[in-house]
Specification:
- The structure is a single chain.
- The chain is mainly β.
- The protein folds into two domains: 116 residues; 87 residues, Immunoglobulin-like, CATH 2.60.40.420.
- Helices cover 0% and strands 45% of the residues.
- The chain has no helices and 17 strands.
- It has a nine-stranded mixed beta sheet, with no helix packed on it. The protein has a four-stranded mixed beta sheet with strand order 4-3-6-8, with no helix packed on it. The protein has a four-stranded mixed beta sheet with strand order 5-10-9-7, with no helix packed on it.
- A hairpin with a 2-residue loop joins strand 3 and strand 4.
- The protein starts with a strand and ends with a strand.
């Protein structure tokens, strides 16, 4: 089972984060290699490719940008504004998709502009589905998230007793990085109110939770 969520924030207090100035990272082309060949940057940062040795060029794997092959001395810069992974290669000495540790290829990872912070703690709910929602707790010391998911079965249950089978209270937990959390979903059963009975907790699914801002997650 894979769960996807799109919820609006109800309770959150988030301090505005200051954004660092854009930077330029230099990548050298020497001896049929990009150095460094695995770069992580922020949105708005640039990568400047500098040919120090040999006859080379730089080309995006998808062909969306690049320069003309040439001898040492040329420079080519590219600014990355959108989060994601971008790969480049030299058309004379490699091909798209080749392992960066094998061919003359490089990988540029652009971080998300939004990062998870403890200010996201609180209750989240979709206004179109009142009575259901989440309670999130983010621990910044170890990048860990715990969540309680209050929802219901997909079919209307029979009976009106308290705690009927249609009510689903699930828990979620996992570690986060950047704007994303990979979670395991657990269901606990066998408990009796005010009784020290033995309960059973079973993993029933996984979830991928991504925040695009301090007020919306998917």
């Amino acid at each position: 089972m894979r769960a996807m969520f799109a919820w609006l924030l109800v309770l959150v207090s988030l301090l505005a984060a200051s954004h660092a100035a854009a930077v330029t990272v230099d990548v050298r082309l020497t001896n049929n290699r990009f150095t460094p060949n695995d770069i992580t940057i922020n949105p708005g940062d640039s990568v400047r490719f500098i040919n120090d040795q040999g006859f080379h060029d730089v080309r995006a794997d998808d062909g969306s940008y690049g320069n003309t092959p040439g001898n040492p001395g040329w420079q080519f810069s590219r600014t990355y504004t959108t989060a994601g992974e971008y790969r480049v290669y030299c058309t004379l000495h490699s091909a798209p998709g080749v392992d960066i540790n094998v061919g003359m290829n490089a990988r540029i990872t652009v971080r998300s502009a939004f990062s998870i912070v403890q200010g996201l703690n609180g209750t989240w709910v979709n206004g179109n589905n009142l009575g259901q929602g989440f309670l999130f707790d983010f621990q910044t010391s170890n990048s860990f998230m715990f969540g309680a998911w209050f929802t219901f079965d997909t079919a209307t249950p029979t009976g009106t007793e308290l705690g009927n089978p249609g009510q689903r209270w699930l828990t979620l937990q996992g570690n986060y990085a950047g704007d994303t959390v990979n979670l395991q979903i657990f269901s606990t059963s066998g408990g009796i109110f005010n009784t020290p009975s033995t309960t059973t907790t079973t993993q029933v699914g996984t979830a991928l939770l991504t925040f695009s801002s301090c007020t919306q997650g998917t």
